[in-house]
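User: For my dataset I need records formatted as: sequence, then structure tokens, nothing else. Please produce one.
Assistant:
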Amino acid sequence: MSEASQRPEARSPRGFVDRRARDLAAEREILTRVSAVYERYGFEALDTGAFEYADALGKFLPDADRPNEGVFALQDDDEQWMALRYDLTAPLARFVAQTWETLPKPFRRYAFGPVWRNEKPGPGRFREFVQCDADTVGSSRPEADAEIIAMAAEGLGAAGLPTGGYVVKINNRKLLNGLLATAGVSSEGQKLAVLRAVDKLDRLGADGVRLLLGEGRKDESGAFTKGAGLDAKAAEAVLAFTAAGAASRSETLDAIARVIGGSAEGDEGLAELARIDAALKGLGVGADQAVFDPSVVRGLEYYTGAVFEAELLLQTTDDKGEPVRFGSVGGGGRYDDLVARFTGERTPATGFSFGVSRLASALRAAGRNLGREVRGPVVVIAFSQDDMGEYFKLVGELRAAGIPAEVYLGASGMKAQMKYADRRLSPAAIMLGGDEVAAGTVTVKDLDLGRELSAGVTDNAAWRAERPGQQTIPRAELIPALRRILEA
């Protein structure tokens, strides 16, 4: 076997992506901005480990000897199975159960970091991605849900979405439960079938969902999906419920009340939404940021009360300029049963989560400038090995002044070095030859100006006329000259 045939192929595992500086800068900026909002609301940062014991995760795990479906798992040396976390909520539930006696109650925390899912990858569906969560554990008040919603809206705005560019849609599981109870639906399986049918409303429309609420639906390929088995009256009641959204939150509550028929659980859900509405009004969150939408059912089989979903409203296009719909960029709700997996006692909790990479992609697709360009360092051209000490002395001065800088350490000539600096999006290149060293001067080439001129930029002509593309100046004037280039 030849040496070449034994070499591994350079390839990324499916569902894992390499990210360069632009993407990382955008994500870091989102996290910095959103974290500042969460901390203003009094939420504490928390970081849990990447691995959890597999039995503590629960959500994806089947009854199998090797719990590696849905998660990436391995066996520790004590034969206990550990798995990479698939979200940030399951680790929070474990942490709260483990440390409950020492925590301030309610416990308000936010967290961000990578999560991993052992699922089939596809377009926009990765096996590793970064999430950002905020949760309140220990409060059953609907006002805790309202604060999470308000914080989510403000966080999305801080991340770069303008008012009108997003909306948080809010529903409550108890409303649909009350409606289904009135219709005589009691089994969890039938409830879940109704939820799955309603979740397809955007894609199939009312007629398609009507079929799925009844006996079932045959798609274009001829494949048949069994329906929820509701009678015609119950199916129409569900559709009327999903269409009850109105211009204002209070009008939507009135419309829902007319549909759900006064069931005890439904009335409880309405009362909770009314309290959320009052708190949101107090927090200054209007209908342009948060609305009640009965058609939102995402995750309702998991949530126990309020549920919310953040939808992107901005016009977005892909790399080819074609329109693309992002839809949801985050979601959450009330989940009062998760901590009980460990303690046996119901512990109220509510939270919101968004995918950082997805939000960064949505912002970029909407033409927002967040993380669009990452500036390279000032590059000091290396002419001679004999002057290498001077080059490093110079970059040391620049770094001490807070200006990113590097000495070119390749083996190429000056032309290639200038091309390197341009590819790094360096603002300037510094030339320090023997004559400059002797004279105490440096030559500065303004690469930003060169890029503007080559791109045919015609505005701000007066500024360009006063800005030399290349100048030789006393070394003592270098830092102020570079600052002018950087600020420009």
